[in-house]
Amino acid sequence: MPIETPALPSRPSRRHALKTFASLAAAGGLGGALLAGCSREEGGKTASAGGAPAVVKKTGDKVAFKYPNNPSFDLIYLADELGYFEGTNTRPDYVGKIAAPQIIPLVGTGEIDFGSRMVPLVISAIASGADLKVVAAGGKTLQEAPHMKYFVRKDSGIREPKDLEGKTIGFNSFGACAEFVTKKYLRQHGVDVNKINFVVIPDEQAEQTLVTRNTDLAIIHAPFSGRADNADQLVRLWSDYDLDGGLGGMAPYSAHGQFIRQHPEAVRDVVAALAKAGNWVNANTEEARKLVAKRINMDLKNVDRYAYVDDLVVTEPPIQYYIDILQSEGKLAAGKVSVKDVYTNEFNPFATRT
């Protein structure tokens, strides 16, 4: 069953301690940027009708940006909890849980204003005419902190890429990292990917689906990959770091074009808060895991960590990597989308020093 997303409780003493800790971390890691002490305001959800881009709602002088309220390791939630939106004119307006495959399409139409999903989904959306752009780099893959991990049952007999022919692989969506990084790797090892059955399974359900033999291999993203690492029946074969050295692991944040044009200062607020939160997570991995464990109601030992690009400044090689893959897969015409079409660092206050 999908994990229910618990609301983060308001606990003034812990919140004050976290903000103090986060302020010190931000001051050291972000050139002395300090947190302001204004309190956040609560607001309602923003609705839209007829599939048209929703009108941005304001609460007082706060610009409310629409964002999914999903059970995940996500910098918007952490930035909010750490107080990085305080003292700005911007705040998140959580609009409920949204299935991973729907996030980028909804950013592209303006149903939500920001979303975090992998680069190939953004490229494909732009190629189809969607109005969105990557504004912050987001997560990265390290050997000790992969973006995604590959698991099989210990009794499956699957140990090599060729063993997967005729088997079923579960991942969280088509068109993203799990599909394209995996297919590229398997083809490099002589596997006929047309002989593999690929099915969509949400990350939080992937481990159980594998254990119950409904899939033969599960590709699971953090934080839920930690639970599979600790499952007695399963064994990890690879991580995405093993497959491509982490080049395909950038998980960026994208924004709807209309929101960018109408609210550039709000975009700067969001990107700055994301960058501060990402740097804080990199410097405080255990404290970050504790916050995520509370949010998704998971035992701390099962919560995998995330790593983030320094200052969340976007670089071009991870984008070109996916443009090349999409072209080789016949999903993107040559010249249809260039790297510069996909991203901007204009709203990142730390980009100029990188």
Automatic annotation (TrEMBL):
Keyword annotations of the record: Signal
GO CC term, one of those recorded: periplasmic space
Gene3D superfamilies: Periplasmic binding protein-like II
Subcellular location: Periplasm
Entry-linked Pfam families: NMT1
Keyword Signal annotated: yes
Primary localisation category: periplasm
Residue ranges of every copy of the SsuA/THI5-like domain listed in the record: 70-288
Family: Belongs to the bacterial solute-binding protein SsuA/TauA family.
Protein name, entry field: ABC transporter substrate-binding protein
Species of origin: Variovorax gossypii
Higher taxonomy: Bacteria, Pseudomonadati, Pseudomonadota, Betaproteobacteria, Burkholderiales
